[in-house]
Design brief:
30% helix, 4 helices, 2 domains, Alpha-Beta Plaits, single chain, VC0802-like
Length: 137
């Protein structure tokens, strides 16, 4: 497999769903100098949203969150992967993790349309070592 895998910390927080809330959060983090490796926002219940934030430096995000009055949950660990896109790339990654005994409980991938992909895999904290070994993260 031609890929680059790295283990990363992520944090999440939940808010009432409001127009512009994701923009506000992202802008405030940028003002605090927080570089994000990834970010997602998904519905949580009927009127809330859960933001998942993958900072380049977890300690910087924790500092900024305290300053901004944000309540973070985490850190947790995930694996960020990027590589050359080809048919079966995601399947091959899953096969390596299954063979290593890793139970993937969530994942999300995207291609850039120019031959590269990005993929985030969430796993149980106890599987951290097996993920690192299987993917070289």
């Amino acid at each position: 497999m031609d890929l680059n895998a790295r283990s990363v910390e992520y944090f999440y927080l939940r808010f009432q769903s409001e127009l512009g809330r994701a923009y506000e959060l992202l802008a405030r983090l940028a003002e605090e100098g927080i570089n994000l490796l990834a970010f997602s926002a998904v519905p949580f219940g009927p009127n809330h949203v859960e933001f998942t934030i993958f900072p380049e430096r977890g300690e910087d995000l924790v500092r900024a969150a305290k300053k901004l009055g944000l309540t973070l949950i985490g850190p947790q660990h995930a694996c960020l992967i990027n590589g050359d896109d080809r048919l079966g790339a995601f399947a091959d990654i899953h096969k390596s993790l299954v063979d290593a005994g890793v139970d993937i409980y969530a994942s999300s991938g995207v291609t850039d349309g120019s031959g590269r992909y990005g993929y985030v895999i969430y796993f149980k904290e106890g599987d951290y070592g097996r993920v690192s070994k299987a993917l070289g993260a």
